[in-house]
Amino acid sequence: MTAIQIADRAGVRELTLSRPEVHNAFDDGLIAELTAAVRAAASDPAVRAVV
């Protein structure tokens, strides 16, 4: 299970934290997933904004 939900809409990539059981607390795993998601968005020419 991933801690981040990703949705693309008209050039906007939305990253939503999805760990309600720990109130979306940051830990090493979440930070790694978030970093990877932001890097993937940065390398995708279709993505114009990240929310």
What characteristics describe this protein?
1 helix; elongated; 3-stranded mixed β-sheet; alpha+beta; 51 residues; 29% helix; 27% strand
Structural overview:
The protein is an alpha+beta fold and 51 residues long. It is 29% helix and 27% strand. The chain contains one helix and three strands, in the order ββαβ. It has one helix at 28-42; strands at residues 4-9, 12-17, 49-50. Strands 1-2-3 form a three-stranded mixed β-sheet, covered by helices on one side. β1 (4-9) and β2 (12-17) form a beta hairpin. The two termini are 21 Å apart. The mean pLDDT is 95.
Order of helices and strands: EEHE
Shape: elongated
Q: Main beta sheet: strand number and arrangement?
A: 3 strands, mixed
First CA to last CA: what distance?
Answer: 21 Å
> What's the helix count?
1
How are the strands of the largest sheet arranged? 1-2-3
Unreliable residue stretches? none
Tell me the number of strands.
3
Query: What share of residues are in beta strands?
Result: 25-35%
How much is the average pLDDT? 95
- The percent of residues in helical segments reads 25-40%
- Radius of gyration, rounded? 11 Å
SSE class: alpha+beta
